[in-house]
Amino acid sequence: MAEGKPRMIFLGPQHPGAPGNVAFKVWLKGEKVVKAELVPGFLHRGFEKMMENRWWEVDVVLSPRYCVEDPDNFELAYVLAVEDLFGVEAPEKARIVRTIVAEMSRIQSHLFWLMHMGGATGARYIPAWAMAAREEILRWYDYVTGHRIYHHYMTPGGIRWNVPKDFKEVTLKTLNRVMPMVKDIEDAFVNNRILRARTEGIGVIKGYVAVQLNATGPTLRAAGIKYDVRKVDPYEAYGDVDFEIPTGTEGDAHDRIVVRIREIYQSKHIIEQLVERVKPDDLNYRVKMPLLPPPTLPWPAVARHGEGMSRVEAARGEAMVHVVGIKDRKPYRVKLITPSMPLLTTVMDYIIEHEDVTIADLPIIVMSLDPCPPDIDR
Amino acid sequence: MSTVEGHAEGKDEILELIRRSLPPGKFKEVVPTRWPRRYIVFIDAWAIRPVMEALKAAGFDRFVAIEAIDWYNIEPVFELLYYVESVKLGGPLVIVRTKIPRNNPEIDTIRDIYPLAHWQEIENYEFFGIRFRGHPDLRLWILEDNWEGPPPLRKDFDTVKYVLETYYGGKKWERPVKRREPPPPRGEE
Amino acid sequence: MALKALLLGMKYLFKRPYTMLVPEKEPPMTTEKTRGRHLLDMSKCVGCRMCQMVCPADAIKMYKVEGDFKQNPKKIFPGIDFNRCTFCALCVEVCPTGALSMTDITGWYMTTTDTRTNLRSPYDLAAELAKNEKPDFRVTITKQTFLYQTKKRG
């Protein structure tokens, strides 16, 4: 069998090892993977066109919906871009609360991913605790924002309503419930000998090659490169909090697990610093937005039309939103730049080219990159 | 958010670096923006390959995306924005902007300079119909098997109307239900 | 290491499960801010169509209702298609008179065959709220939720 022609099989979109709504055409020689080609588009809904047909503030409802797992960072990206275009600055309280909400989103995204990672490695029992921890965060979201998954809590100009009176206590209580579970998962799953044997040395992207492959997010940091948009281009309240960028050394699948676990601790650290500064009685949390964008903005020698741009670090890597507004109630163009596309194309190709990947390793590699396929499709 | 005054200290260095490393005569202008450490390079469409090569050599190593804007009745062009950032220099971002005519949207490919550009060019081909010269694999990728119409993100094309007419049978609220013929009754002969 | 994992596993074995027995044992989980089924105060609605215009999912249609509504000369009221609704509360935010608000009726409460909660219209909910002192739902999002300090720019 190992001789002959490679045989093509279809992996996904309903395969348990596939990360959601995406498929791969995998060419196999024996059980060795020769080539894997991404087949996206199962969840294409045309967000960029839909946003052109709706009002500025209504698009907030659409903006998180292309990534279920990490909605708030993408919502934040859109909101920041619109504020940038309109020239509005959100009050300090809104910026702090939005940072907390976005960091919670990062924690729950990583926890959700931990469950998937367990599924890919065949560990079903322990990562289920991650879902329990995520459930605590979803309850916190329901308490603060009103919904569990898509929150629509941010709006251009601030947050939509005030935080509850006992915001600080509830947030700290939630973290105190989540963190012991993360610690247990770390002890029982991440440092487990079986998982190490299964993930170490697999899917190696080490050093500067990760940049050359245009990878982003935890994949880049696990390769040993200290790069985080929250540090290099601080937005919201990240400029005045203290946190570290965890990096890996080997750049294999296990390093990516470790980096994400350490990011959860860093997020907790950020939230603990910021939650002290939230004053529930402060009513200055939202600025009235003008209906129309200003016709031009003080760009030196650039287009006649206003443009706004934002750059955030989502849970999967760098996300950007670029909005163009002519003087209209609706955006002229919204470009959503999302982090998952390099992970499943260039990085996957590189790994398969440089390693002996078997069909059993493929789900582990795909899952350890943590792509969010809907944001490829949009 | 940043203001024009709020530029970081290293601004001039990176601006000078970009000016110095770009091939002379192949770019129109390099401008700082109101965002700190983000720069815009205006070029003509024919110069995309030398400019991107020079930027990569200057240390702008992470390719982010290609964006197309259809300035339909404002100006008959597609504006292309190439986002490149530098991990080596600690995160500055360069946007290379160029314009190509709307009736003949063609530009050279840069897929061999940055690997991700291969996929970004396919995406822009299917959504805007921009042809990248030298790209061997322009096809429907995200829209594969789901789309027969013209490129959907162009401004002169009413996507909603087309979808309603083509896929929803003209109805806004539900898909047309194809009622299957009931199977013929079992013969009793 | 393996022993530690085993011990931790034993710890979680005796914990209460996080799964909830909905609908047999427990109602859908709600909090004070849960955005659920709408509530329409027809004595306040002026039929301005703002909610219809703002709705991102195109879920609101205006329906003509006969009756004595002095404030609503066209006698049109929003009807919400809950199959399309995303519960973003933009219609509540934009409503100029505060006629629309939201309750915490979510999940299987919205579609159950239980006669007590079977798909009551927003209008019915408001009527129940008016005559019943202790209704089996609570109003969570109202116009007041969105009131904020309007700060002039510049």
How would you portray this structure in words?
The complex is a heterotrimer of chains A (378), B (189) and C (154). With 378 residues, chain A is an alpha+beta fold. Helix content of chain A is 44%, strand content 12%. Chain A contains 14 helices and eight strands. In chain A, the strands form three sheets. A three-stranded antiparallel β-sheet of chain A has the order 1-2-3. In chain A, strand 4 (154-155) and strand 5 form a beta hairpin. In chain A, helix 3 (71-86) runs antiparallel to helix 4, helix 4 packs antiparallel against helix 11 (253-275) and helix 11 (253-275) runs parallel beside helix 13 (362-369). The longest helix of chain A has 30 residues, at 92-121. The model of chain A is unreliable at 298-302 (pLDDT under 50). Chain B contains four helices and seven strands. In chain B, a hairpin with a 7-residue loop joins strand 4 and strand 5 (93-101). Chain B folds into two domains: 11-140, Beta Polymerase, domain 2; 146-176, no CATH class. Mean pLDDT of chain B is 80; it is low at 1-11. By secondary structure, chain B is an alpha/beta fold. In chain B, the strands form two sheets. Chain B has a five-stranded mixed β-sheet with strand order 1-2-5-4-3, covered by helices on one side. A two-stranded parallel sheet of chain B has the order 6-7. With 154 residues, chain C is an alpha+beta fold. Chain C has a single domain (30-146), classed as 2-Layer Sandwich (Alpha-Beta Plaits), CATH 3.30.70. Chain C has helices spanning 2-13, 50-54, 90-94, 122-131; strands spanning 38-40, 60-64, 76-80, 100-103, 139-141. Chains in contact: A-B, A-C. At the A-B interface, helix 3, strand 7, strand 8 and helix 12 of A face strand 1, strand 3, strand 4 and helix 3 of B.
